[in-house]
Input
Amino acid sequence: MPLGVRIFLVYFLFVGLAGWFVLSTVMDEIRPGVRQSTEETLVDTANLLAEILRDDVKHARLQQSRWPELLKAYGLRQPQAQIWGVQKSAVSHRIYVTDAKGIVLLDSSGVAVGQDYSRWNDVLLTLRGEYGARSTREDPADENSSVMYVAAPIKDGTQIIGVVSVAKPNQSLQPYIERSQRRLGWLGAGLIVLGLLIGGVLSWWLSGSLRKLTRYAQAVSQGQRAELPALRGGELTQLAQAVQKMRTELEGKAYVEQYVHTLTHELKSPLAAIRGAAELLESDMPAEQRQRFVANIASEGARLQQLIERLLNLALVEQRQGLEERVEVELHDLADGLLQAQAARIQAAGLRVENHIAAGLVVPGERFLLRQALTNLLDNALDFTPPGGELRFSAEIAEGRVELALFNQGEAIPDYALPRLTERFYSLPRPASGRKSTGLGLNFVQEVAALHGGELALSNVPGGVRASLRLPLA
Output
């Protein structure tokens, strides 16, 4: 199972359980919380009524007062109040008053007048001087039928002369409880979903970063050129940099060993020629023969210098993982500059040169490397073009790429050599001298093309050879 999926599952389990526990706890606290709030209001109401009713109870004129009529009118009121989205169309308080013995003197419902309520906790405890409250079910089988009763003492000085109780059915609170639970449920579910979504995004981001590092490590292990992925996050960035540093150190060691071996092998032939010519020069010989051996030494020395310079340039390109700059390079002017630099050689060979690259055509890349690559292609073309032959630069745009081509008139490349021309140190004899080059030029061009996200293609075409450098436009 992928690491990102495992992280998400753990996160899902943690957030889900934590969200469920918190939501369940809060849901369970809504009902008692609302009832506690209501009880506090009932306490205030009962104590207010106790003060208002005191004189009527003291002088035993409660039944002759307007209280029965007022309470009856109160019970018939229809508030039509809109309370936080809940419609309240009837009053729900019940009020009854007892004397000091617990006998009901007044009842807003009109059903308990004359009954003995002295054993009900609200009346019993209040007459004892304690806080009197009770919760009683009207239907013993229905828990939602419970009614809260809160009483307050009616005092004459310090003597308790009666009790007033205020009752409220819990059923009247149910719409507010359900509304709060419903709103909290939606809010809690939304927060849990949001938390899981954030967890999913974080897991996807972490998995994506790890996949980038994995692909980078796999590309490195396969010897491919790959750029260090751009990662955000302290530890991931440090890990990427550590992998890059390890790669650089390991590749550097292997690269040096490979190049020392290769350079040693390639230097043997010119050094042997120089040493043999030097030994022969120690003996007496005609001036003309001496001059020929001196020329051989100079030629082999130049070959050594060219070999070393080409190896250094190739090593520089092969070790790079990306471009140091990316600017717009105008191809027509670049080709013109190279042809002018080789004007003396072109004129001496009587070659016909054409530049068919459209003015203004540009590709993004590193100007120096592209110039070096085209220089190598042009040198190769000049070496294999016979006197009076033709050279032609052209460029075409297709499928988001520019195909920069150099045609040179000359003999076709042998079939056995075509797939090997970009190999390091592989070269064909030059028609004019019969000598081979360093065999590093086309390998250099191929590396430059790869750095730019392109490719090099060599092919035989009617009348000559075509070298194509395919580069992306963006």
